[in-house]
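Ticket #4471: structure output looks truncated?

Reporter: J.K.
Steps to reproduce: submitted the chain below (386 residues) through the standard prediction queue, then opened the result file.
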Amino acid sequence: MYVAVKGGEKAIRNAHAQLAEERRGDTGVPELSVAQIRNQLSLAVDRVMAEGSLYDPELAALALKQARGDVIEAIFLLRAYRTTLPRFAATEPVNTAAMRLKRRISSAFKDMPGGQMLGPTFDYTHRLLDFSLLDDSGEAADAPQATQADRSEHAEPCATAPRVCDLTGMEELLEPAASGESDWGTEAPVGDLTRDPIRFPVDRDIRLQNLSRADEGFLLSMGYSTQRGFKGSGGHPFAGEIRSGTVAVELAPEELGFPVCIGELKVTEAELLFLYDGSETTPPQFTRGYGLTFGSNERKTIAMALLDRALRCRELDEEVVAPAQDEEFVLSHSDNVEATGFVEHLKLPHHVDFQSELEILRRLRTEWTERGERRAQLLDTMKGAA
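Returned output as attached by the reporter:
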């Protein structure tokens, strides 16, 4: 990671002071509070938590305020703080099948058990600017009003339902979970991307960890590339199920010997279905792509599922023909904190390096000129001899 170099301390202090002034903005306007950011910019807060690898809405909101709304800078701040925290225990795998649902949809199964739950979504909005939101005096005058019954029903997650793909079976046309697996975890020890560096090729557990905290924009563009034909998995995928809500976090203390709930997390989960032509050992069937992130972030979980399926090419004996199938390319360039360090370090002083390259360039140009002069002399000599 590249960080600021020492030097120009007075100028740096002045830059920090100016940054604080810019962050505050017009003092005639009330200051934006962390509570306001947490409650009213919740999707930005959720993204910072997901890519910062730390579930704490208040700290994520604080990071957004400190970063002046720069999401990647806020993610950097949260990651840096995360490294200072002790790790005293590991929780049980969360059971997303027992998720208390706030939203649950499927584009593949119309009449799924438990029904579809639209929940809060932009999917059916007209994408027109709502100028009534410029009124800061209170609620927008012409905003759609929910009934009291709707408020009581949907103010908090209100239902649970098992995953629809686990219920249908689809006459064995959907690939089963591998033997020994429970949901998407395995009985084998799970790797930890935050403690051990990636070594290629990687197993799916590490791959999903990487994608879960990867930059949303990068995943979106890579996932989009698979839909445009740069992929090895065939056909148009279907959203088997997309769900969001809260899941229980359980810890099994050694002195108790059984798990106890210590809190809840808000998560989004996506499972996509892809048509697979089969191989010598596997019959044609639908295969799965999976995504799971902190908070409400359907766009990222869908893109994550697209890439998860594309990166399963080795497992499914598919030829690597596209960038989205190259795990080293995808996983090595997906982390926005690491990418930011390498890209933005170009702003830092490189005076010595630049002077060195200037000297090299001057020497190369002198040698180039001398070679040209020698060629000209040789041509003149050859012409005189002729």
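Triage note (M.O.): checked the attachment and the full token line is present. The chain has a mean pLDDT of 88.
Status: closed, working as intended.
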